[in-house]
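Model it.
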Amino acid sequence: MSDTEAKNPEPSRARALFSTADFKLLREALASHARTTEDREELARINALHHRLGTYYSG
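Modeled.
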């Protein structure tokens, strides 16, 4: 065990993968794509993802 591990036994805090602005951009891109697709199955997947992103970013 190194000196660093002995002094700091807890793992470092995880950093966010996406920013709030990223979630907004992703939602806008999905909404734009949803308006142009005619495939009902793809639209259902887009809507589900759009909804899931909304649970992380509501703004």
